[in-house]
């Protein structure tokens, strides 16, 4: 667990430094979102498949903490602000911001009510995390579709390219992939830990 925290810290520092220096601006927002999502999901899949130590780590994970990690999605408020400022297209920013805020806030309820002290997650726990992944997928698709006027659905000529600039570039390079991994960790850990129970 300590190693995981160190890795996340180093990942954040790298993403923050490259974002602050403008290094990500050389890439399109579509590239950043696509690569971030694929890299995170692929790394998780490979580790789970090949590493027995990683699978052991999953069994030791706290479902509460993995769920509360979705608080990072409050970063989505910035998308709503940028949409209001006409920096990001509403087609991408509003659904993304609203979904992120909903999942960030509801994570407190899910962690408190759907993960009893005995560690057996209730059925709604899995559904909530699956919906969280679906929401992330919708955001990635909308970011890609609004990344260029070539797609023909940008809002008044405003594209999602602002997501390649600091501080928004932290979303496709750190926040988005991190919350995706947390969702995957929680799902696999829950399915491995104990039989699901219904909400009382």
List its traits.
mainly alpha, 200 residues, 8 helices
Low-confidence stretches: 196-200
Q: Into how many domains do the coordinates divide?
A: 1
Annotation, overall tally of beta strands? 0
**What structural class do helix, strand and pairing data support?**
mainly alpha
Mean pLDDT over all positions: 85
Helicity range of the residues? 55-70%
Tell me the β content: under 5%
Order of helices and strands: HHHHHHHH
Q: Compute the number of helices.
A: 8
From the alpha-carbon coordinates, what is the Rg to the nearest angstrom?
17 Å
What would the principal axes of the Cα set say about the shape?
Answer: globular
Largest sheet: none
User: What separation lies between the terminal Cα atoms?
Assistant: 31 Å
Describe this structure in words.
Helices cover 68% and strands 0% of the residues. The protein is mainly alpha-helical and 200 residues long. 39% of the residues are buried. Helix 7 (123-145) packs antiparallel against helix 8.
Please describe the topology of this protein.
Blueprint (H helix, E strand, L loop, with lengths): L1 H19 L8 H22 L1 H9 L2 H6 L8 H8 L5 H24 L9 H23 L24 H24 L7
